[in-house]
Amino acid sequence: MKKIILFLLVLIAFSCTKQTAPDKQQEEEINPFHTPYKQYVIQPYNMSIEEGNKFEKYLRTIGPFEWSDISVVYPKKLDDSFDNPNHTRFQAQKILNWQKKNCSYKETCDSIIIVIGYIHDDISIPLHGKSDWGIQGLGSIGKYQCLVSDFRIKNKNDLWKVTLHEIGHAYGLNHCPNNSCIMQDCKGKPNWKNKKWFCNHCDSIWNPAGLD
């Protein structure tokens, strides 16, 4: 009798093991890196909805946005709690923390929503030994959230490059050593002159289906 019970327990355990494999495979198939179709939500800060819409139209003129959906949500007015101690800049990470909690995204097997915060004001983070280093943008790697400021962008034609760099982070890309890749680390001295797109490696992650 004990042998029969032991045999049944082994059979049940084996059956449960066999059933978990398809579930794991399905999870891998809906991983963001296997989902080429991306949607974008623009969260304007300290500006009118018209300015947010203008930014949306601007983004639609560059490569990846021509085949993606972009929408603009109602602008958010930042109060003093987002300031640096000297009240001269907004702290980028605090803005992103608010954005993560209040501008939710959804992920399905065929689409991903990435939230792009957009602001004219100066933003900063602790960097290069400084507690308040001015930056052009900040992206939460793999969290579908990023922030872009045009305050420090000298050539306004580079705005789309900064945006694409931060979206790359939001989608899961780290900095890249390739000098011509849009994901190269600026190291405090942004130079977008020869950067027009991702390198082949980063592009294979960003755009696994090879879409134009």
Task: Walk me through what this model shows.
- By secondary structure, this protein is an alpha/beta fold.
- It has helices at residues 2-29, 49-59, 92-102, 159-171, 200-206, and strands at residues 38-45, 69-72, 90-91, 112-119, 123-127, 130-135, 137-140, 145-149.
- The strands form 2 sheets. It has a 5-stranded mixed β-sheet, sandwiched between helices. A 3-stranded mixed β-sheet has the order 3-5-6.
- The longest helix has 28 residues, at 2-29.
- The radius of gyration is 22 Å and the shape is globular.
- The model is unreliable at 2-36 and 208-212 (pLDDT under 50).
Strand and helix map with partners:
Elements: H1 2-29, E1 38-45, H2 49-59, E2 69-72, E3 90-91, H3 92-102, E4 112-119, E5 123-127, E6 130-135, E7 137-140, E8 145-149, H4 159-171, H5 200-206
Parallel strand pairs: 1-2, 1-4, 3-5, 4-8
Antiparallel strand pairs: 5-6, 7-8
